[in-house]
Structure formats: C-alpha cells, structure tokens
Amino acid sequence: MLGLVAATANGRRLASHLAAAWEDARLYEGGPKEALPRAWEECGGIVLFLAAGAAVRLLAPLLRDKRTDPGVVCVDDAGRFAVPLAGGHGGGANALARRVAATLGAEPVITTASDALNLPGLDALGRELGFRLEEDSDLAAVGAALLSGERVNLVCDRRWPLGPLPENVAPSGELEPPLILISDRTVPVPRPAAVYRPPTLLAGVGSSRGAGAEEILKLLERSLAEAGLSPRSLAALATVDLKAGEEGLLRAAEALEVPLRFYPAEELAGLEVPNPSEEVRRAVGTPSVAEAAVLASGARLVLQKRKSQNATVALGRLPVRGRLYLIGLGPGDESLIPPLARNALARAEVVVGLEQYVRRVRHLLRPGTRVLTPPLGQELQRAELALAEARAGGSAALVSGGDAGVYGMASPALERERGEVEVTVVPGITAAQAAAALLGSPLGHDHCSISLSDLLTPWETIRERILCAARGDFVISLYNPRSKGRDRQLAEVRRLLLAHRDPETPVGIVTDAYRPEERVTLTDLASLPVEEVGMRSIVIVGSSRTRVVAGRMVTPRGYEG
C-alpha cells in the first residue's frame, strides 16, 4: 500500500488525484504531523505533498533502517517535481517518483548516484528476478568501485536477464574483489563483495503421514549443506498431490516463505528416477516422490534423495528463463515512443533491429547495451539473434517501427519461440494510426489494413483481399503501396476500387509521418497520384461514408443517428 500525505488544499487535490488513479494508494486524513507516522507504519511507500525542508524534519525521527523503511517521495505544492527523499533503491522511492511524475505530469528529480549516471543500483540488482541479497554484502565499497570506473568482477553461475551492465563490470571465473557474486553455491567469498542468491533451487519432498515440519526442515537444511547450496536460493517445495493436506509440509513451506507445488501421482510415476521404491509405489501410487517432483518441476536433479525417519528430500536446479521484448517504436517522432518501450529498452542487454530503427533509440540505451543490426531482408536472422540471447538467459529487445505486431518482427519471433523464454510484446503506434491522426479521423468506423507487397504474399491473394474489403465497404489502409521495383500494384488497386467506390471517395496519402520530411496529401480515388506514393507512404482509402469536413478526412461512427 502507498500512503499519500498532504498539508495544503492544493496538495490534497493532487493527492486525491493519485488516490483515484492508483488502486494501491490511500490518502491519509489530517495534518502531516499526525498522518505521516500512521502511514509510516502501514505503507511500503509514501508520497508527501510538502516542502522538502518540512518533510525532512518530519521524517527524521521516523528513520530506522534503509533496508526496512518505506521509500518516501516529496512533491511540491504545484505538482511540478517528484523528489525521492529516502529509500531511493531499497525502499523503491526512485521508481515511485517516476510513477508519480508520469501520473501528475511532473518531473522526477533522481539524485541517487547510480541512477544519475544510468548505472544499476546494487541494492536493487536482480530484485524483480527474485534475487536475495546477503545481509553482510559490502554494497558501499562495491558501489564506490562501480561508480569510480574501477574494474568490478562479476561471477555468475549462469546467465541471467539482468539488463545492461557498465563496461567496468567484467564477467570473470575468479572470485576476486571488488566482486559481484550471483550464485546459489556456498563458497568462501573475498571482500569487498555483493552476494546475491538467485531463486534457482527446488526441493522435492516426500513424507510419511503426520511427519512434522521440524523434521522436514532439518532434513532440508542438512541436504542443502551437504550439496554446498544456499537456503536463500530455495524457490519452492514440490511433492505428490496426495500430500496436499499434510500439515507438516504446509508449515515447512510457510516457514521457508516459498510456494508448495503438487503433482499427480500418475505424472510422477511416469518419470525415470535414480532411486525408485516399490514401498513408496504401494503407498502413494508412484515409485518416487522427492526425486520425481524435482524432475516434474522442470529442474535438473543436483542431489539425490536423502532420508530421515519420516521424510525424504531431493534437490534440483531450475532453468533460467531469459527475456525477450518485442518493441514497436512508433512512426518516427521520439515523443511517440511509448514509455513501456523506453522501459523495455533500458532492461535489454542486447538490442536487435534494422539500423534505421536502432539509430532512433541509441540515446535511450543504458551503458553497456550491445547492438546488432542485420540488414533489410534478414528478418528471420534478426528474430533468431534476439531469441538466442533470451534462450541463453539474457534479455534482448527486438525492435520494429510502428507496432511490432503489425507488419513487424513480433510474428517471426513468436513463430519460433516455444515457451522457453519470457516474452513481452510492447505495443506501439502503427503507421496507419499515425497517418490517420494527421489526416483527421478516417478510421472512425470499420477498417482494415492490407499490404500491397507481393514478396511474401501472392498478388492474387492480395487482389482478392482488396475486392473483399471493397465489397464490405471497409476503410482500407494500404501498407507498402509502391516501390521502385514494384509500381503497378497501386494503380491496379485504384482500378479495382473504382468498380465499387465513388470516384470522389476521399483518399489520404501520408509520407514520412512525424518526421521532418512529412507530407500529407488529401485527394480522391479518381485523382490518386500513384507516382507520388512510395514505400514510406501510407494510403488510406475511405468508405462510402467517409467525408472531408473542414479539410479533414472523417468516417462518421453513426452517433448522429
């Protein structure tokens, strides 16, 4: 929950706006002196609508530990600036300031050194991936080395989608300080070091009826110690579904603060394990519970089952799922690149796309981001390059103009992805939407988009689609209307449409939308100047209802009826 505290009438107005916009926010009544202590105890983040000096004086007696204190953002009475005052990384205040700024139209003022230099914050590194930071980590010393440009060694058992890291963070096989260690292994660590425990381990657990939580926890502790693995990397417990009501198992999972997964006995019985047991088969219908539950979870067995009097435990290591962002950059103007796309680009350690698209966003990439730009015509290679990075456990962005899912790179990438990686499709403003906005509102009623390029689709198929759209009286957005080597299709489309549409049907041509060379032409179907259209153009042909109103192309929705 986020707490909102205000001192003035205007501050309360701004706070009320946030409370209405955010489901996880609560406006505290009363003056800041009374409201802030209540919010401090009840909330994970606080937005104070108050002068910074007054806010600091009120906060001072409440501050205890940056690892547990809520993040605090101060907003001026005019709502112009959002300033994180405490808990920038650990308390999430930097992220909260950006969220406040986005909602209020304010400017986030981030003073944390790593954020100001566009570097990762060590106290938040891997947090969204479930990393747990060891409490004795030397964040100050390693952070100072990072900011000063000194070499910081990164030792990571496996690749993770961490996003881009600074050039002075050097992947290494040696535990040499200053060090960032990401591992589930318990090894001696030289200092200074920041040690992260990723959620890689899964414990399969079998138990006799009535086995207690204490026995299960002790066996698990011994098994982890024997394997040299950290309990802080434990991500889940798994067992057979017949044990769903066993109190000992439930309490063990609760004590460890991890989920408990259940698998049907018949599914576990179908898995080949190192140590099957006929006695277990007779009892629960599968010759293995602990080892089979590990394998059923998709983990690789790293410690075969260990026994106590009433329990068995086996340990497995879960696979790392990389991340693939499929991003549409909009039509051309930087201001039309959506915030979701900017956030995804900042999280990608590799950006793949045509040079003309990557060039538009190079300034948005964080230091250390790699760029791959296979040329036009190598669409499948671009998709495979991005997928290969994500399959290896990294984070990759595959960029397209417009919207990635509309004549973009989302389709070839998703055709080849088989559930191995986390995929986020980031929507963008399509070429048709951009052209329509410049023309007025031609897409106000039913419409369709058709590409006239016959490189991937036979012309007869395209021709049939044009005729169907004409008979259905759709507004038609024509993509790839004409090129130097392909100049007959648009003229033929005009001829086909004239058989179904009035010659005076409005037609809009937009070339280089939202770019310095932008050209917008409003004409009619009979006068469509084919020779003025190119591959950077979108042609929008109106329906029988489309009109020109005050110089704008409009397709009525029908409200007046």
TrEMBL record:
Segments forming domain CobE/GbiG C-terminal: 201-315
Gene Ontology biological process: cobalamin biosynthetic process; methylation
EC number: 2.1.1.131
Top-level division of the source organism's lineage: Bacteria
Sorted UniProt keywords: Cobalamin biosynthesis, Methyltransferase, S-adenosyl-L-methionine, Transferase
Any one GO molecular-function label of the UniProt entry: precorrin-3B C17-methyltransferase activity
Domain Cobalamin biosynthesis central region: 120-198
Enzyme class (EC, first level): transferase
Domain (Tetrapyrrole methylase) ranges: 323-528
Protein name: Precorrin-3B C(17)-methyltransferase
Provenance organism: Rubrobacter taiwanensis
